[in-house]
User: Which sequence fits this backbone?
């Protein structure tokens, strides 16, 4: 059974298309992130699910009911905003109970649900505080509780962590995820932070210029990017110009240095210009003379990042980043030294020019 | 150099205070001179003994309250809607709200009389027309106060948050918007109150009992009582402001405290 479906959804503002042919099926209880750069249409898509924007074309259905044209207050959808948007004139408890009061639930039922929600977000003692008396992280938790109190069919979150500082951002995202799992609620989470999306989602929808680039689990999106944009946007990536030497074997040449790619290059011809892409963590120093993908390099620069040491190497005229785990008992190479580096055939991605 | 600056600012402040309070003080002293040779509250006694004083004053208070209510009913939803849905029209609406400043009251009242004194719009004798006219006169203050109040809250996000929780427009206006701009509404209400209480032209030409025309009449016939009436209305207006201030205070703390 489909739960939340967007089929062929598009949105135009005075002739400019900002979301185009958006197709997505979300399962019940799934945590889906919309990930993409600023202006790619994440918020617009989310707002069409919430009912704040009406699609120019396409349909939105929720539990087999077409909600495309329903007003926001007639959909059972919870929303969490970047700016918290708590009602300043109401206490925490009144904020959380707001939606229940609109549904004319009994005072005792409201009271019970509010304390349940306060317990869920670990703010039992703050029920009578006003929003301005809370920290940003606490306010956003209250906003989450308020959105959940109504038992919505879907929870929508538009960059809910962007206004918070780094530490709280990480702890609150874990809290959001655990609450979402506990309640089994479907969630759509908008972010432009790839690490956030990778860490929190069941599936990620990577968007670019109003279109879906790829939909997949964090593992799939990171390890098997479908497009050059996804490869670049999710995680960091070394790219370099190269050309096809042997399409059948997947042999490529970059400035005369040869790389083999496990990815098929059969649909390409010898001499085709392509880009090769290799993630920094897929490189390593060559411990033995392997057959494939061992190349000479010069150590250009070494950056200590804590758990990871980023080593910049130069292969021919191209600089690559190579990430290795920090090991206090291993000596790092010297800058300017010649070293052989290698990567597996699977690590070499082939992207269109 | 620095000291000189402080001296100057004190000097100007004192000049300002004198400019404002001296006429008031003179009026007050004058109002105490009803009995030759001694200071007394005789003129105030005379005033309170005059039944017309009370009726005209209470009429004006009623007009003021109705004006404030009508102003709130009209301008809160308008200012809210403009901010939410057509923010690009805000400068135009703001300009429109200033029209009462450029149209003299006498011109305005003759416009009202001409328009509404023959069928089908024969309402020139209705008190409603006076209240409506006062609402227009108070528009620059009321509308701007409300608009300023709305600027202090995130109207769009709060509206959307309420909508996603199932609220309709009525709930949003009464439960979310009104309470959060209470202080702004109160300050607009105070200014409207002061304007209506001192207004002469509209009440005079629409022939309604009001405090302004009453003082006008007093001035023509009495010497000391108009001064006493002026002092009373001034004191009452300030008292009204004090009450509004007190009522508004409780909420203000919360609103100012936001992030
Ligand atoms: N009401 C509107 N009228 C006209 N254009 C709009 C409107 N809302 C959004 N847009 C445009 O649509 C595009 C997508 O906007 P959207 O807010 O969905 O981006 P986003 O992916 O959420 O970006 P960000 O990460 O910056 O929030 C942008 O180019 C934006 O300028
Ligand atoms: Mg956005």
Assistant:
């Amino acid at each position: 059974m489909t739960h939340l479906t967007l089929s062929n959804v598009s949105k135009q503002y005075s002739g400019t298309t900002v979301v185009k042919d958006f197709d997505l099926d979300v399962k019940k209880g799934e945590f889906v992130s919309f990930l993409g750069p600023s202006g790619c249409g994440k918020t617009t898509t989310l707002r069409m699910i919430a009912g704040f924007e009406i699609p120019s074309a396409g349909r939105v259905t929720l539990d087999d009911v077409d909600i495309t044209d329903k007003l926001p207050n007639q959909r059972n959808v919870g929303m969490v905003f970047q700016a918290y948007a708590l009602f300043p004139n109401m206490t925490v408890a009144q904020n959380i109970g707001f939606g229940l009061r609109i549904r004319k639930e009994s005072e005792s039922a409201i009271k019970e649900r509010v304390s349940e929600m306060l317990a869920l977000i670990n703010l039992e003692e703050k029920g009578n505080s006003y929003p301005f008396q809370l920290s940003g992280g606490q306010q956003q938790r209250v906003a989450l509780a308020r959105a959940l109190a109504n038992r919505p069919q879907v929870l929508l979150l538009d960059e809910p962590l962007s206004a918070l500082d780094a530490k709280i951002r990480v702890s609150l995202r874990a809290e959001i995820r655990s609450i979402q799992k506990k309640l089994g609620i479907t969630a759509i989470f908008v972010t432009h932070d790839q690490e956030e999306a990778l860490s929190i989602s069941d599936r990620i929808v990577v968007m670019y210029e109003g279109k879906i680039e790829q939909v997949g689990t964090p593992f799939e999106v990171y390890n098997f990017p479908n497009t050059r944009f996804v490869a670049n946007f999710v995680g960091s990536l070394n790219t370099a110009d190269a050309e096809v030497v042997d399409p059948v074997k997947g042999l490529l040449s970059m400035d005369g240095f040869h790389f083999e790619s496990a990815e098929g290059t059969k649909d390409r011809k010898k001499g085709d210009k392509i880009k090769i892409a290799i993630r920094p963590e897929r490189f390593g120093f060559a411990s033995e003379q392997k057959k494939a993908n061992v190349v000479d390099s010069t150590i250009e620069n070494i950056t200590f990042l804590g758990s990871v040491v980023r080593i910049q190497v130069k292969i021919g005229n191209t600089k690559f980043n190579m990430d290795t785990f920090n090991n206090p008992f291993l000596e790092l190479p010297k800058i300017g030294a010649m070293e052989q580096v290698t990567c597996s055939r699977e690590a070499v991605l082939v992207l269109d020019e | 150099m620095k000291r000189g600056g402080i001296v100057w600012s004190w000097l100007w402040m004192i000049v300002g205070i004198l400019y404002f309070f001296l006429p008031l003080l003179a009026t007050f002293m004058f109002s105490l001179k009803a009995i030759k040779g001694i200071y007394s509250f005789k003129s105030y006694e005379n005033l309170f003994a005059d039944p017309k004083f009370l009726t005209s004053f209470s009429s004006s208070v009623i007009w003021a309250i109705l004006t404030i209510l009508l102003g709130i009913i009209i301008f809160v939803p308008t200012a809210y809607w403009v901010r939410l849905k057509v923010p690009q029209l805000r400068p135009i609406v703001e300009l429109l709200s200033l029209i009462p400043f450029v149209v003299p009251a006498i011109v305005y009242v003759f416009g009202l009389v001409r328009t509404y004194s023959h069928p089908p719009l024969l309402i020139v004798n209705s008190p409603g027309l006076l209240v409506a006219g006062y609402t227009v006169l108070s528009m620059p203050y009321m509308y701007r106060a409300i608009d300023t109040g709305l600027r202090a809250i995130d109207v769009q996000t709060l509206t959307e948050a309420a909508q996603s929780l199932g609220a309709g427009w009525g709930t949003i206006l009464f439960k979310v918007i009104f309470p959060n701009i209470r202080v702004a509404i109160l300050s607009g209400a105070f200014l409207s109150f002061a304007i209506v209480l001192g207004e002469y032209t509209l009440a005079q030409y629409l022939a309604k009992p009001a405090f302004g025309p009453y003082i006008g009449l007093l001035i023509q016939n009495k010497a000391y009582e108009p001064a006493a009436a002026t002092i009373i209305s001034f004191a009452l207006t300030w008292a009204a402001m004090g009450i509004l201030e007190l009522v508004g205070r409780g909420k203000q703390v919360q609103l100012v405290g936001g992030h």
Summary: Residues 218 and 248 of chain B are 36 Å apart (CA to CA). Chain B touches chain A through 24 residues (CB under 8 Å).
